[in-house]
TrEMBL record:
One of the Pfam families matching this protein, by short name: Metallophos
Name of the protein: Calcineurin-like phosphoesterase domain-containing protein
Limits of the Calcineurin-like phosphoesterase domain: 37-250
UniProt lineage: Bacteria, Pseudomonadati, Bacteroidota, Cytophagia, Cytophagales
Matching InterPro entries: Calcineurin-like_PHP (IPR004843), Metallo-depent_PP-like (IPR029052), STPP_CPPED1 (IPR051918)
Length: 327
């Protein structure tokens, strides 16, 4: 469903900000003095895709980052290459605070995971951290399922050799880590991944998304059952509250079993059956999370340049939508 239709259904004008009430909500948040954390997020920059440099585009995001000094910044995959990308890292490193990476499929088009992670300074392919009263989880969904069932790391464009249903898998070791990590989380959880587990128009290319969704369901069910988990601050049960995903180059929002899912639009272009249509200005967003249970997303919008055909303009928004959400 297009966001425009969604707003229409709610009787709220497109482009305005709506408060979504989560009827399945469980009390994920403790009372007491609220903490806030604000982060900058950019996805699918695609430096050097189709031979195009995207240093200037990233600098637009970084200007805003440097000016507004968020608590951290994160890129949600398909960022750049391990060579000819020094200008990208120069821009990225203008921010002196914490910077986080998510591996996207195109990041391994010309190398393996180790090379791009070393270039970025990314210590682990999946990991988690606590900041500002929230628990953040970063996943790596870049595995191929070979014909014999083995999972192989993406490396040097190998993902292109197998059809869509064989792509975007997550390894067992990581799934076990994810489950354990979430069950031990002391704060409400926000997850970042490149390939979507939900809301995708490409349901054949989501790998073992069902296993990840099952883990979210199990953890959130246990949080509901426990009511108050030992070790959590002020008796607040930890649960997965939001998931940010890239890859599809689209702007979408939806809820599944009480979790808020966001498809974060590309900073750079939409890809259609007729090829790529580029955005004039970079798309990115700033997200503010409040431990009283609020999330605000301030997204940027732009236009196509050169102008795109009407069917592209009407189907693929050149924006990341604003949201105000009760978690
Ligand atoms: Fe991607």
């Amino acid at each position: 469903m297009q966001r425009r239709d969604f707003f229409k259904g709610m009787g709220v004008a497109a482009g305005s900000v709506a408060i979504y009430q989560n009827s399945f909500s469980i009390p994920a948040f403790a009372s007491g003095p609220a903490q806030t954390i604000r982060f900058g997020m950019i996805s699918d920059l695609h430096h050097l895709q189709f031979g195009r440099e995207e240093v200037t585009r990233l600098s637009g995001f970084m200007d805003d980052v440097v000016k507004t000094n968020p608590d951290f910044i994160i890129q949600c995959g398909d960022f750049c290459r391990h060579t000819r990308s020094e200008g990208i890292m120069e821009q990225w490193n203008r921010f002196k605070g914490p910077k986080y990476h998510v591996l996207g499929n195109h990041d391994m088009d010309y190398c393996g995971k180790e090379a791009i992670m070393q270039f970025w300074g990314m210590p682990k392919r999946y990991y988690s951290f606590d900041q500002g009263g929230f628990h953040f989880v970063i996943m790596d969904r870049n595995f191929l399922k070979e014909d014999d069932g083995r999972l192989t790391h993406y490396d040097s464009s190998n993902w292109g050799k197998l059809p869509a249903p064989k792509r975007s898998f997550t390894d067992q070791e990581q799934l076990e880590w994810l489950r354990a990590d979430l069950l031990q989380a002391r704060f409400p959880v926000v997850v970042f991944m490149h390939q979507p587990v939900y809301l995708s128009d490409f349901p054949l290319e989501i790998g073992n998304a069902d296993e990840i969704l099952s883990i979210f369901d199990e953890v959130n069910f246990k949080a509901t059952q426990n009511g108050s988990r030992a070790g959590s601050p002020a008796g607040s049960p930890a649960k997965v509250v939001a998931v940010f995903m890239g890859h599809d180059h689209d702007d979408r929002y939806g809820q599944r079993n009480g979790v808020h899912y966001f498809m974060v639009n590309s900073a750079t272009y939409v890809y259609t059956k007729d090829g790529a249509y580029y955005y004039k200005d970079p798309l990115y967003a700033f997200v503010t999370l409040d431990t009283s249970g609020k999330m605000t997303i301030e997204g940027r919008s732009t236009i196509y340049t050169p102008a795109a055909p009407e069917q592209v303009v009407s189907r693929f928004p050149t924006r990341i939508s604003d949201h105000q959400i009760k978690l």
